[in-house]
UniProtKB/TrEMBL annotation:
Domain of life: Eukaryota
Organism for this UniProt entry: Populus trichocarpa
Claim: Transmembrane is one of the keywords in the record: yes
TM spans (from-to): 432-450
InterPro entries: Stress_up-reg_Nod19
Pfam families according to UniProt: SURNod19
Signal peptide positions on this chain: 1-26
Protein name in the entry: Stress up-regulated Nod 19
Keywords recorded for this protein, A-Z: Membrane, Signal, Transmembrane, Transmembrane helix
Length: 466
């Protein structure tokens, strides 16, 4: 009877521990509490038809070794009221990481530093140089696009092992906003048509290339779109208000890499060039020609632009979303075998309220595949397709696709990379350690109980469970 009782005690202890461990493994989550903070960009002032397109260095951002879980943004006025897109169009905003030499003063574009004083830290995307190298960024669709990174994943920042010696990690913000109050052609202003801006040279004073009729080169900072004669709208102070959620980094988090693909990518990289040129890599923007009556009958006036891209690494897709402008009809990223990796479609507003502005893209649908269900292999040729409604001509549109890729998944059991809570004061993080800790703790409990029972028998007592 005593032997059965001892075995029962050992089995009971091990069952309790096994239950605790299996419960933790079934629902892998980040144990850290999610933190949140809301920041404001530096002030920018816009009047009817004017443009803001500036870069702000060393912006407010979470510090330390953390994992970003979401990033939301919108344009607000000086008392915090959200601004509708039909007044101030948010063409895009991007946030990028860079390293700055320690001990330097902050001047926010007021002074030119030596290139060696800054090191740009781009994402994992495949465009040339620093083109589309941002970590975060959207446009008019900001308010209704889901940006959260599901557990147990996060975007890792602030890792001290990645910061070059003598530098410190900082963040850069670019806001491109266009005030369309009183505009003669509101859509034309948001699509940066050069004739509406009366622009013949780019921001560097160089003549526009032949045939360039609209896009970023015609609506740079301090340019002016044509407004109705006599329109008297006032200038006003605006800000990009952005909210970041994050967790402190620990071994339970699986890091993700950020990839941004561009449907205009030619695949060419000319002599190590990092800039944007007609034949060099990612062009960022393109024009959509209006369809003919014959095309309208055959394809319903949909312009489908496609490009082939080569994935540099293997991994699992855990998030995907496209970025398009007005006229966008959705975008899809396909695998080499034709499987759909992610389809992202625009959400158009239908009213006048903030977040529901008629005729504007106010959100993009997102993809959250089941962990491990969508895998991409290194060297795989992907196909990116961007569709636009071409019942009318569009200039300076974009066909970008963001995906987050993890090198592993938490399923079926992610012992190697998930923290396992065996007891409230004991944590293990590898299968070997987990098994040893589990067995060791069970044995310790059993040995203790056996010792107490033996002592009890010696003193004339019978164990309770005998």
């Amino acid at each position: 009877m005593a032997l059965c009782s001892q075995g029962g005690l050992l089995l009971f202890a091990m069952l309790i521990l096994a239950f605790d461990v299996s419960g933790t493994l079934a629902s892998p989550e980040i144990g850290n509490q999610i933190k949140s903070a809301t920041f404001l960009s530096p002030e920018f002032v816009l009047g009817p038809g004017s443009v803001e397109d500036r870069y702000y260095s060393n912006i407010d951002f979470p510090r330390g070794h953390v994992g970003i879980k979401s990033f939301k943004a919108e344009v607000v006025d000086d008392i915090g009221n959200p601004i509708p897109l039909h007044e101030t169009y948010l063409h895009h905003w991007v946030v990028a990481k860079y390293y700055q030499r320690q001990g330097m003063a902050e001047n926010n574009d007021k002074h030119k530093f030596q290139p060696s004083d800054y090191l740009f830290a781009g994402n994992s995307g495949i465009c040339q140089g620093n083109v589309l190298g941002q970590y975060f960024g959207l446009g008019s669709e900001t308010r209704k696009t889901d940006t959260h990174v599901p557990n147990p994943y996060a975007i890792e920042i602030g890792n001290p092992d990645e910061v070059p010696e003598g530098y410190e990690e900082k963040w850069l913000l670019n806001v491109h906003a266009i005030d369309t109050r009183g505009a003669v052609d509101r859509l034309g202003c948001t699509e940066c048509r050069c004739d509406l801006y009366n622009i013949t040279v780019d921001q560097h004073g160089q003549p526009l290339r032949p045939g360039y009729i609209g896009g970023l080169r015609c609506c740079y900072d301090q340019t002016q779109c044509k407004v109705q004669q006599g329109y008297g709208g006032a200038r006003r102070s605006l800000y990009l208000r952005y909210t970041v959620e994050w967790v402190d980094w620990d071994c339970s988090i699986i890091p993700v890499k950020i990839f941004i693909f561009d449907v205009t990518d030619t695949g060419k990289r000319l002599n190590g060039s990092t800039g944007v040129g007609p034949e060099n890599g990612c062009q960022v923007e393109y024009n959509v020609e209006s369809c003919s009556s014959a095309n309208a009958a055959s394809d319903g006036c949909i312009d489908a632009k496609r490009t082939s891209l080569t994935m540099p690494i293997s991994g699992y897709v855990i998030y995907g979303v496209a970025h398009q402008h007005t006229g966008g009809a959705g975008s899809t990223l396909y695998g080499e075998d034709g499987r759909v990796i992610c389809t992202s479609e625009p959400i158009y507003g239908t009213g006048k309220d903030v977040g529901d502005e008629a005729g504007y893209i106010v959100g993009m649908s997102t993809c959250y595949p089941e962990p491990g269900s969508i895998q991409i292999t290194a060297g795989e040729n992907l196909l990116l397709e961007s569709n636009y409604n071409s019942t009318q001509k569009h200039t300076g549109v974009m066909g970008l696709f963001y995906i987050l890729v993890a090198d592993r998944t938490p399923n079926p059991t992610n012992f190697l990379h998930s923290t396992i809570h065996i007891h409230k004061n004991i944590k293990v993080s590898t299968p070997a350690v987990a098994i040893v800790a589990l067995f060791g703790l069970a044995m310790a409990i059993a040995v203790g109980l056996l010792s107490r029972m033996k002592k009890g028998r010696e003193e004339g007592y019978q164990p309770i469970m005998a």
